[in-house]
């Protein structure tokens, strides 16, 4: 039997959190005397009262949490949050249409950053703050999910990180997870505040600085400006954001190590080293390409390539240059980056560096295995032998990811009959990035997509954010049986 | 030490075969009193004399054949054949440029079918015959390679077929392989003759019937007409070619079973069943799509979808309709088929049905494994448990295939700055199909591609044809060491 009461209780607590976050947005709306105050009053009332009601009704729920409850809660949270989170958009009249409001909200909570808005500056400040907050909350959620919950359930090779959270599936959420979560959120908060301060010093308004720190640390990419970061023609602001995007795409456990003085552990971490290596390779290629093909200064070419590479690999999705206008080969390089993603245990989405490294190593070793068929050549990661089961799991993840990408592109092209736009929209939503290719490129929006397409892309965002398996398992019969 | 003498001796024998094949083309040239007689006289003389010379010089070579010799010979044969095979094109003036002639020849021997010719009907008959012969020989070569040689060396999961050729790596080419090869070539010849007869009855000239049978059975796709099979507006001819493309894409061991009365083994074969299933699914989708979006008769829509699906999945590459003019979603479906390929042990290229099935099964089981982490859930194929090593190998093959595809698309887009054309050209050459997308679509040629691009695509054809690993291993240091 599924512990339905516990699921509802968890949702109740989380709705309460969402309601409180809406209260914060209400305060912002009040400060700026916006037209959106009533929207937040009503929506926070709905969330808080419903949350309290659920908590009270389920106070006798047993605290036994198994796989079924875990997977269900994790998936439901994102859906329920997006459903209630879209209420302020609708009530304030900022996004009157429910499909559009839901798309914008789930794009927020999944830290994707794809937007249907085509006149962002016209929105009231409370709404802009709420929009950034959805991403910030989503980023918080994903840290706990990827560092504390997924490894326990053994999702997609995330067991490689069980060192932090050892032991078998626990019967209840252990105090250890709570402690880990608190520590990591502390770091998340610290980075957010530091970035806000730096951006403010760099010339952003205090409001914009906070909003952009929220969406940087979540690798979300929502901006308060239609032109995204390109709005600010300030190298300082660009470099600050680059640094914090890199941090947001790094495993938060590593940041913890660095902050507590264990810098050697950070520098020895294989995923971190490959992460920097991939950034370096792509920056060199694109920087060189820009110098050859575009008539621009060296620093600008370097900054543009670095910003776009970091923004895409970390799945943030901010832009300071329209990569669709680059020489096509460079655009295709950027598109290849759509299939990398941040580090495991970061707020970044996508396939993730750790998996890419395991894939690359296994492919290389497979050639060796062909030459020496009797030798046992295991994949090693961070000096440990990776269990064959985990390798198979990582390989399966990659293949399912690609199958979903191809199948979705075919399906999406029914309503969006352009291969490039279709591939771009699917890849960017599945990878939780933000901008795509063709008519959903960096200077375009998702407004013109058919409603059915918006729901489809919303589902892809969820699928990508929850590492595929979490969602897919819910559709499998054997999960619910016995 | 590598047995260099043996390698040269093997090449000598194979050059002799190529020279004799050129003599056959010379006979055709003489019959049609073409301007190309001298080209075949000279080129066959070169091949035969060089072949004999090599054989005589290496008559004392030891017959010890190991992995190194095997991989080297297999890779070299295709390169050497293409080099000498391009001589008739050059000498006859049909393709005066060496790069173009080499591209056309390797496209022939690898049974790809991509062409640089834009006025095929103007060529002398001897050259047209030679062009078809390169594919027919390539098809013959690939049957031995995939059924007799690759399983021994354990390439890309081909061990699944070692049932036919049991035992460890033999010291010399065993009489058993020779026997198997003879039997399979017998079937190949039988099918070729039967198809020729049927096409002749269907209204093709005797010459066209032979040439098209050659290129159908090789899943090559070279035609004697610029418009490919669309030249003949005859349902009978289309259906005959469909049937023989399906046969050419089927494991030749299975055809042997069918011909010797063991029809039940054929019907129980999992790869064969999935092969037909994939064809069925894609035909239903595209047929329905054509009925909805195009104004054409039911039979024509059915035939067009069936022909194109079978032509692409078997990697033949004939066309009776320009799929680029279809509703984009249908074109994308066809492009998805670029990543399937024929059965193992057929003349078809690409990823191969067997691998796709193992991938799909493993992905599905991985979900089950997530739910029951302690259960051992192996992949089963044809009622046998597939060794984890083989599963990992198949997964690695797929991933390397995709990495090569993505990397090559990026590289190729430097000289072909259009994403769609670039993806199409790379996918079609790597999969040994023929036509691509964009400016290398079914009604276009590869003539306009930059020479560097033509050499690059030639390399991809070879890589795809030899199941990646055969070629890649040659670049690995540990292969040549110790």
What's this, in brief?
The structure is a homodimer of 482-residue chains. With 482 residues, the first copy, chain A, is mostly helical.
How are the SSEs ordered, and which strands pair?
Two copies of one chain form a homodimer.
Chain A: H1 4-31, H2 37-57, H3 67-85, H4 87-92, H5 98-109, H6 125-153, H7 175-201, H8 206-217, H9 235-248, H10 252-259, H11 263-268, H12 270-293, H13 298-313, H14 328-337, H15 353-371, E1 380-381, E2 384-385, H16 388-415, H17 419-430, H18 451-465, H19 469-472, H20 477-480
Antiparallel strand pairs in A: 1-2
Can you offer a commentary on this structure?
Two copies of one chain form a homodimer. Chain A is mainly alpha-helical and 482 residues long. The first copy, chain A, has helices at residues 4-31, 37-57, 67-85, 87-92, 98-109, 125-153, 175-201, 206-217, 235-248, 252-259, 263-268, 270-293, 298-313, 328-337, 353-371, 388-415, 419-430, 451-465, 469-472, 477-480; strands at residues 380-381, 384-385. The first copy, chain A, has a two-stranded antiparallel sheet. In chain A, helix 1 packs parallel to helix 3 (67-85) and helix 1 (4-31) packs antiparallel against helix 6 (125-153). The N and C termini of chain A lie close together (9 Å). At the A-B interface, helix 14, helix 15, helix 16 and helix 17 of A face helix 14, helix 15, helix 16 and helix 17 of B.
């Amino acid at each position: 039997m599924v512990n339905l009461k516990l699921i509802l209780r968890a949702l109740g607590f989380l709705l309460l959190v969402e309601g409180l976050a809406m209260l914060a947005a209400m305060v912002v709306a009040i400060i700026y005397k916006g037209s959106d105050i009533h929207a937040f009053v009503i929506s926070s009332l709905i969330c808080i009262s419903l949350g309290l009601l659920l908590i009270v009704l389920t106070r006798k729920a047993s605290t036994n949490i198994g796989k079924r409850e875990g997977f269900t809660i994790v998936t439901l949270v994102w859906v329920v949050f997006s459903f209630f989170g879209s209420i302020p958009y609708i009530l304030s009249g900022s996004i009157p249409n429910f499909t559009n409001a839901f798309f914008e909200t789930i794009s927020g909570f999944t830290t994707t950053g794809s937007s249907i808005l085509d006149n962002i500056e016209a929105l009231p400040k409370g709404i802009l703050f709420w929009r950034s907050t959805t991403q910030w909350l989503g980023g918080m959620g994903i840290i706990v999910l990827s560092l504390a919950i997924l490894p326990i359930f053994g999702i997609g090779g995330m067991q490689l990180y069980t060192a932090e959270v050892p032991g078998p599936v626990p019967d209840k959420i252990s105090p250890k997870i709570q402690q880990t979560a608190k520590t990591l959120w502390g770091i998340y908060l610290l980075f957010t505040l530091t970035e806000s301060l730096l951006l403010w010093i760099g010339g952003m308004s205090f409001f914009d600085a906070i909003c952009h720190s929220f969406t940087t640390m979540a690798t979300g990419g929502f901006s308060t400006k239609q032109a995204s970061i390109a709005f600010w023609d300030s190298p300082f602001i660009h470099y600050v954001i680059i640094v914090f995007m890199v941090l947001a795409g790094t495993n938060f456990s590593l940041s913890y190590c660095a902050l507590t003085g264990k810098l050697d552990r950070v520098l020895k971490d294989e995923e971190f080293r490959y992460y920097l290596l991939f950034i370096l390779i792509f920056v060199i290629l694109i920087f060189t390409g820009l110098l050859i093909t575009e008539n621009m200064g060296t620093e600008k070419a370097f900054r543009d390539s670095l910003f776009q590479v970091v923004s895409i690999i970390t799945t943030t999705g901010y832009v300071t240059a329209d990569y669709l206008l680059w020489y096509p080969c460079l655009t295709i390089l950027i598109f290849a980056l759509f299939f990398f993603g941040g580090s495991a245990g970061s707020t970044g989405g996508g396939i993730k560096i750790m998996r890419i490294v395991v894939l690359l190593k296994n492919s290389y070793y497979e050639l060796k295995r062909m030459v020496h068929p009797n030798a046992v050549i295991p994949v090693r990661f961070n000096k440990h032998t990776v269990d064959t089961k985990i390798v198979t799991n990582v390989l399966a993840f990659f293949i399912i990811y690609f199958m979903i990408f191809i199948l979705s592109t075919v399906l999406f092209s029914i309503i969006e009959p352009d291969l490039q736009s279709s591939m771009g929209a699917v890849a960017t939503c599945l990878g939780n990035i933000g901008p795509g290719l063709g008519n959903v490129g960096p200077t375009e929006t998702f407004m013109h997509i058919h409603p059915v397409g918006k729901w489809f892309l919303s589902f892809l965002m969820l699928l990508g954010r929850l590492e595929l398996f979490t969602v897919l398992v819910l559709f499998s019969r054997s999960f619910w049986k016995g």
